Fold this protein.
Amino acid sequence: MANSPSGDSMVHRLVRVIEAFDGEHRTLSAAEIARRADLPTSTAYRLVDELLAESLLDRDGRRLRLGTRLWELVSRGSKVLGLREAALPFMEDVQSVVGHHTVLGILDQNEVLYIERIGSNSSTINITKVAGRLPVHATSTGLVLMAFGPADAQETFLRRRLPRYTDTTTTNPDELRRRLAEVRQMGFCVMTGAIVPESTGVAVPVFNAEGTAIAGLSVVIPRAGGPLQTSISALQTAARGISRALGWDGTLRDAIRRSL
Amino acid sequence: MANSPSGDSMVHRLVRVIEAFDGEHRTLSAAEIARRADLPTSTAYRLVDELLAESLLDRDGRRLRLGTRLWELVSRGSKVLGLREAALPFMEDVQSVVGHHTVLGILDQNEVLYIERIGSNSSTINITKVAGRLPVHATSTGLVLMAFGPADAQETFLRRRLPRYTDTTTTNPDELRRRLAEVRQMGFCVMTGAIVPESTGVAVPVFNAEGTAIAGLSVVIPRAGGPLQTSISALQTAARGISRALGWDGTLRDAIRRSL
DNA sequence: CACACATTCCCGATCATCGGGAATTGTTTC
DNA sequence: GAAACAATTCCCGATGATCGGGAATGTGTG
């Protein structure tokens, strides 16, 4: 059976090609793409040609990189850019008060995807990366997103097997349920050393018009015990500002929530 | 000749689908995609299915949006994110001194592509958009990129027919050549009302290790005549900072340039 | 110069893609 | 609530774009 096309779809191959590029491999040669995407040589070369023709890849000599046109297309249409732009000014406010890393994350495929970060360029360990992912159960952002997010997401989340990172990582479903309830009651989440010790996250939800959390805003501070209350109120003010900037005036809903 | 596949490649169709989404159309139904991408209905539906399978599209009821996974993949591998992250802190510095819109742009396909903007949320008309394009010859950012960019780009640029936007837009090749020389000599570019009247751009180049401009940093101010010198030195300090942050220590080159 | 590797080019077989059409479901409108 | 309209899903045969092995050529390296 000599020339049989492999079963997977064209799109999937393209994804593999794009996935071949990452933070450590911003430029690749065609042969490297073939290897990393596990494609037959000639197939890889043909795909690269097609992508070049559409400017989805840029060529510099024999090195290839993801095209800026691709970034442009995706950014224009994705909701990420809008969210990021709405949030940035408020994140700066938080930053000026709290002074450590300020991070914005959303829920995607049962993980936290970080879409923006501004940081004092030294202070704390920066485990969060823009366009990077972390597990829901081990991050403060993850828990607020889960606590105030859509109900169906919570179900599937609690049904999954969760990995431990340090001895303070909570993986037990019942305990997580308890923590989620707590977060819902308090309106924020503090989590210490669930992935790396000596690093505390404080997160609050950013609500949409329906009152579901669509993003989590958080600060990462060196250790617990600082003036938490200051951070929390700065975060909450900012979160409300972001909602308003996005045209989701949460005032009414907030009032209801508070009066309960 | 009933069922003949249309001539264009798969990738091109996918691009058309992605292009169907933009700032005004962040969510589309499958039928809208078919119309906007000019695809036969059943083809569009099949493509949408494939894209959903790879999470390149997200589905919300019957509305579709560009998947955050797509944004993630592209951002991770693209040089844009790195540049943006390196630049942001310095842009904030500029912002705090100058107080109007501060913008970062790069050259792509003979146009200026803006990749970051921070702005006083009211002051000036914001013609620049993140992930938006403007022509080279009518923007200050465009001219610095051209003046200090790779030589071959200049050739093709000057050979092209250029549109006028206002009566101050420079389209004459010889005059442009003169302006480019001027920019090279001064080290910055000031341009007033070349696209919309009453809006002045001031731009400086951000150099890479080889001494070619890879980005243009600029501020947009309401009208000419303000304390230009302040803006320019703020921009230049920032630009040097960005180069350094990217690991391209421009000190040596700057010294050479200055001593000429 | 020899060797390894990257890149380009060629080509026949195969099967995923194409798109018309019809059936089904959902949404407006009067 | 019924009719008119649009959106979505499903089916299926014909077609040609895609597949990938292989050979030739280019590039760099010790």
